[in-house]
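Problem 12. The chain below contains 220 residues. Write out its predicted structure in token notation.
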Amino acid sequence: MSKNPLLRQEDSKVEVTGLEAKYYDTLMNIITLGWYPSFIQKVIDDLGLREGERILDFGAGTGRNALLMREKVGSSGEIVGLEIGEEMKGQFLSKTAAYDNICLEDRRIDEPLPYEGEFDRVFISFVLHGFVQEKRDAIIANASRALKPGGTFCILDYANFDVDAAPWWVRFAIRKVECPLAGDFIRRDTREMLAAHGFGDFSEDRYMKGYLRLLQAKKL
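Solution.
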């Protein structure tokens, strides 16, 4: 539980269930007026993945991201997705069934994980903001342990900015559509958060007028 009594993990919207989970990819396409598929393709391109890399996908969802990443790492690479949602797991397994180098494990990313220095990359997409800070720290620590020395933690999420100074549509999305945890995440310095766990050598790509960010950090 967060030390801030106003923030509760129970308020998070990051664990999608029910019909929203069953039709998640379709809903994302509709809500974004068809923008999301080209956006996530651009993000995967910006990762700079190389053939043969091993990737750990935190909160792997429907498998859409895993399939795009496999196009980059090829048949000699490997993608291990972590997901707990029943509807999401079903879609992931169905979509990736044809590829023996994509697998799925039922594990929470905010609890201790068994991986030690095994992966070239850990990827997490629009998940980290949905946790209270103590759990974010646990997730970052899990990523650090799972990565090889020099491995990269790749975080696609909101950038850090002044919500009060943002355009109305950004303020509306953060305050009315998202959960309170998202606003807390945006106000914090993500780089400082990562540096506390031994990450550095940061690089970033910005999207959606700079309000979304792919932040990449090396395990030093």
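Discussion. The chain has one domain: 9-219. Students who got a different answer should revisit the alignment rule from Section 12.3.
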